[in-house]
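Page 47, continued from p. 46.
Same chain as before, 457 aa.
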Amino acid sequence: MQRYLKRMAIILAFLLLAPSIARRTAGQEAQQSQQPSYTLPEYNAEQAAAAEKDPQARIKKLDAFVAQFPNSTLMEYIDQFYYQTYYQLKNYPKAIEYADKLIALDKADLALRVQAIQARVQLFGLAFDAKAPDAHDQLTKERDAALMGVKLFPDLKKQPNSKVTDDQIKEGTAFLEAAAGAADLQLKDYPAAIEAFKAGLAINPKDAVSDYRLGLSYLAMTPPQSLDGFWSLARAVDLKVPDDAKVKDYLRSRILAYEQPGCDSQVDPQLSELLQLAANSPDRPATYTIPAHDDLTKISQASTIITVISDLSAGGDKAKMTWLAICGAEFPEVVGKIVDVQKSEGSVDFMVFTSASSDEMQAATMANMDVKVWTAPKPATAALPNANSVNLPPVEPQPDVVRLSKDDPIRFAGMLVGYDPSPFLLHWDHVKVDPSVIPEKAGGAKKPMPHRTAPQH
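Result:
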């Protein structure tokens, strides 16, 4: 992003105001109809510098003017020639130096001062070195100049024969508010940066870079204003901020760190929803939220397999929150009844029903859980249900589970990796079946239903 901003075209004609500002020669002619405030030699020297085409030669003529007429009333025009010429020479610090001199001339023509402020702000990105010893001072001056421009801009319309339009006032003000915010952001004055960016965006809500920087400012607060930060970054992506793909990846990483859901892939639908909503509203609605990690932890700690099944079966926001908290969770003990066995190469899927009631388990004929047990080493490329990105550690294969059959009880530890809402089915992987429930030989006597303990994870 910084590289992009430094590559931005700098229009040194400062086109926003240039068409609306009367040429200095016209102003001078008006002065000549009265008593001029400068001498003919001053005027001739200033005109000679203005007519010089070679930038280096023009600098020499400007230096000669200052040496000969240090207190001239034409100094505001000399300073203007200086900063424009140093821009041509790509000496941006010197260009800013002379723009600042013109800005500081309280009695100078208002339009020339505002134009110099615009010039200074546009040049700052080319001249600023964040590692310079005076970087803080440079940023402070940049912010102060931009805020001065915000204050002075509306006065342009009050000038005699002004051709400045309301749209130009708005555009210039938004530009300078964004510049003040950018300086405040680097100064780590995040509340001031937020105030400036919001002021600029209120005028120009399609300023993608300001939305991006506003998002960074929210996230840098102590404590971070995460939801507002996410919203502003999403707006920036929607508005096609430069490097929008990288900004989107960054936004995803910040949501992931804020939420820390059980499965990383759960962030993707949330991100898609956020981008869709932010595209239609500059401001985050009070009703929009993303659960924080602490919220999910509370849900996870209070969950059992029975409450998980109940919450997920209910659908809606409750199911979304529960799955955010539970996906990828490991449960040390789950019991149930096998209602079907589906064998494949290297694994067995036990279709299992579980309930808080032993009688319901005994009578069950339909499964509410798919329990995958590996009978051979699990392939590294094995896909998980619902494409959840759960990174499973190695699990010891259990070839003897093939002796389990329909209607057998089962007790196991495992990890939740997915679920189907309708018909409802929980998916388990990284499963370890309790050896005590596995018959000693195929067709052996069935063991009693295991005693059910509190099925917390």
